[in-house]
Amino acid sequence: MQVPVIDISPLVARSSGRDEVARQIGAACRLHGFFYIVGHGVDPALRARLESLSRVFFSQSEDDKMRLRMALGGKAWRGYFAVGNELTSNRPDWKEGLYLGTELGPDDRRVHAGIPLHGPSLFPALTGFRETVLTYLDALTSVAHRLMEGIALSLDLPADYFAARYTTDPLILFRIFNYPSRPAPEDMEVLWGVGEHTDYGLLTILAQDDVGGLQIKTTEGWIDAPPVPESFVCNIGDMLDRITGGRYRSTPHRVALNNSGRDRLSFPFFFDPSFDAMVRPIEGLPGAPDDSAARWDRANVHAFSGTYGDYLLGKIAKVFPELHSSVEINDAGFAEK
User: Fold this and answer.
1) 3-class secondary structure, 9
2) 152-165 tens-digit pLDDT
3) Which tens digits make up the pLDDT trace of 237-262?
4) Which residues, in sequence order, are CB contacts of 83 under 8 Å at separation 6+?
């Protein structure tokens, strides 16, 4: 079983042929929730520049990288974490990373209100890094909007269904991950670059370098999603699973330990509902069965009730428990301890 490659240029151009692209996306979402996209219009030079700058950042000393540690990002949840400091299912992942997102200043109402995951990023002092990241986020945001139009059409919904309800002001989160080729210490019991998980929101658009390691769980077992030149890998998240009543399932995936002899870079871009959006099933769809017994986290996304922010914060608490403990949630809002 292979992950399909879909040319989305008719979606990007909003031209004839986009209904056929939507059909292909729908088929991929029903099959196993993953697909490659080409014809996306993102400048290859921009992506190459991002990769080059990221390698320079990760080649720095640990002390230099820790000057951007996530603890300094506060409630915005931005910054650097060292190898082994992010958990999946309570086990450390063998990667390091830089958390980024939509750049918001202190005058933004959400920043002023202290809403988590909103604020400025902590950028390395590398020439062109900030500008490259922000340009890349703009480019991927545009692609994500077109893809969500395709997903809406695949469900026989108006093209603007998701934009009108969830993504007029989407929550954009971006990660730059480095998977070192060096082995993990035996006493850490590290098994994966990233352990089995599903993504939380609507849509993930992933750029990966030529090393590989991404694996997808299917009904026939785990399959590889190797690098395809000039492509992105897309997958759907828990909230799209919930919205579609389980018609489109968020698929578990993982990253194998990197034994290639070269460090591996990946760039997941998360296109999610706004933080305060109430996430509800599409009207008229049959109710989804409880599939928690088969899920990696034993959770039932269809039983969840609340905003996307509620769901996301609950998940983050398990990924960065120490960092989460530094933020107190009370009736008045969010305040740092």
Assistant:
1) helix
2) 999 999 999 999 99
3) 999 999 999 999 999 999 999 999 99
4) 94, 95, 96, 180, 184
Nearest to 248 by CA among 159, 156, 310, 155: 155
Give the CA diameter of the chain.
Answer: 57
CB count in 10 Å sphere of residue 140 = 23
Task: Give the closest residue to 250 by CA, choosing from 299, 187, 214.
Answer: 299
Q: How far is residue 136's CA from residue 172's CA, in Å, rounded to a whole number? A: 12
Q: Are 311 and 302 in contact (CB under 8 A)?
A: no
Identify each DSSP E strand in the chain by its residue range: 5-7, 34-38, 79-81, 87-88, 91-92, 96-101, 171-179, 194-197, 203-208, 214-218, 221-224, 232-236, 253-255, 264-272, 327-330, 333-336
